[in-house]
Design brief:
Elements: H1 3-21, E1 30-35, E2 40-46, E3 51-57, H2 61-64, H3 73-89, E4 96-98, H4 107-117
Parallel strand pairs: 1-4
Antiparallel strand pairs: 1-2, 2-3
Helix pairs in contact: 3-4
Length: about 120
């Protein structure tokens, strides 16, 4: 089997396992993290209604000027802080953390720690 195909299948399996365990509802929505090589994005989703309640990304126009490069831990910390502030402003205090197919270290862990420090609980 092709190595890239094998890695893709492992990522898909991790994503499905995490998504099966983590479901968001009106009381505790799901905080989903997207990570690419150059950007980090996070959104708070209510799975019962299928709506995104709050989101933040390194590609947002108002945040792009404050971030030098979107693919490092500093950018992830900034996005975690911003999404937590927006969630608290929307009345969301507790979320369930969905790391997707990514392991909990590096940029994903930095985003989660910054969101916790900003007052979001999960």
């Amino acid at each position: 089997m092709n190595k890239q195909k094998q890695i893709g299948k492992q990522k898909q399996r991790r994503k499905f396992n995490v998504r099966n365990r983590v479901r968001g509802d009106g009381e505790r929505p799901r905080m989903s993290v997207f990570r690419s090589c150059a950007h980090v994005a996070c959104q708070v989703i209510d799975d019962a209604t299928g709506k995104t309640l709050v989101s933040a990304s390194t590609r947002d126009k108002e945040l792009r000027t404050q971030i030098k490069y979107g693919g490092n831990c500093d950018a992830a910390r900034f996005i975690g802080k911003v999404v937590a502030e927006r969630a608290l402003g929307a009345g969301i205090k507790a979320v369930r953390f969905d790391r997707g197919c990514h392991k909990y270290h590096g940029r994903v862990a930095a985003l989660a720690d910054a969101a916790r420090e900003a007052g979001l609980s999960f």
